[in-house]
Amino acid sequence: MIKNIAIAFLFTFLLISCKTYNVLEEAQPSQIIEDFKYDPAYEYQIRKDDKITLSVWGQDDLSVGSVYGIYNSNEVYGKWLLVDIKGNIEIPKLGTTYVQGKTIATLKEEIKTKLQKWLVNPIVDIKVLNKEIVVLGEVRNPATIQVDKDHNTLLELISKAGGFEMYANLKSVKILRQEGENVRVTNIDLTIMKDIPNQNIMLHPGDYIIVPSKKSKDFDKRISTIIPFATVASAAAILMGQL
C-alpha cells in the first residue's frame, strides 16, 4: 500500500514539475517510429557513473582492468575507472581526463595521442563494463542484460530474456529511453505481423523494455510519452505501477 502511494506521489510530482511538456502528449505512429528509428551512425556516449577499463598493450602501469593481461583483472576484482559526477576519470600518468559524452572511438584516439609523448604507436583499448538493457514484465527471465554492441534489436533482447510469457500483452510493449533530463516512452504493437520490420526497433544501451500483462489495464497504448525530469529507472517504476 505504501509502495503504491509513493509511486502515485512520484508520478504526480513529475506531471506538475514541468509545464513545457505534456506527459500524455499524443503522437502519430510515424513519429513513434521516427523517434526510435535505426541510426547507423549511432555510437554509445560515455555517461556519469560508467565503469571503464583502460588497456594499454605491454604497459601494466598505465592499464586499469586490462583485457590484455593473462589474468582476469576487470570488474570481478573491482578494477575499473568510475566516471565521476563531473564526467571525469583518473588515468595513470595522464591524470584527470574529461570523458562524459565522448564515444569509445574518440576517447581511444585522444588517449593514444597523449601517450605518444612516451610510447611509440601505443595500442589502446577501452571498454564500458555497465552497458546494459533492462527487460521487465511478462518475459520468462526479467533481467538486466549486458550488451557489448551499440545496436541491439527489440526481439533480440526479448529472446535473451527467455521470450514472452503466456499472458504478455504484445499490443503494448513499452520502450523507455533517456533523452537528456527527460525519458521518452513509446508503445510497440508486435501483433501487426506485416509491420514487424518497423516494430522490431533498434535499442541502445541504457534502454528499458516493459512487457505488460493482458490482465492489466491498457495504459497509453496509442501515444508516445515524454516524462520530464526523470531517469529511465524511475520512469520504469512509474509505468510498472500503472500496468
UniProtKB/TrEMBL annotation:
PROSITE patterns on file: PROKAR_LIPOPROTEIN
Record has Hydrolase as a keyword: no
One cellular component term from this protein's GO annotations in UniProt: pore complex
Positions in coiled-coil regions: none
Keywords of this entry: Cell outer membrane, Ion transport, Lipoprotein, Membrane, Palmitate, Polysaccharide transport, Porin, Signal, Sugar transport, Transmembrane, Transmembrane beta strand, Transport
One protein family per Pfam: SLBB_2
Domain SLBB span(s) in chain numbering: 131-211
All copies of domain Polysaccharide export protein N-terminal, residue ranges: 40-128
Protein name according to UniProt: Uncharacterized protein
Record GO biological process: monoatomic ion transport
Domain of life the protein comes from: Bacteria
InterPro entries, A to Z: Poly_export, Poly_export_N, SLBB_dom
GO molecular function (one): polysaccharide transmembrane transporter activity
Subcellular location: Cell outer membrane
Major location category of this protein: membrane
Gene3D superfamilies found in the cross-reference section: Outer membrane lipoprotein wza domain like (3.10.560.10), wza like domain (3.30.1950.10)
Assigned protein family: Belongs to the BexD/CtrA/VexA family.
Membrane topology of the entry: Multi-pass membrane protein
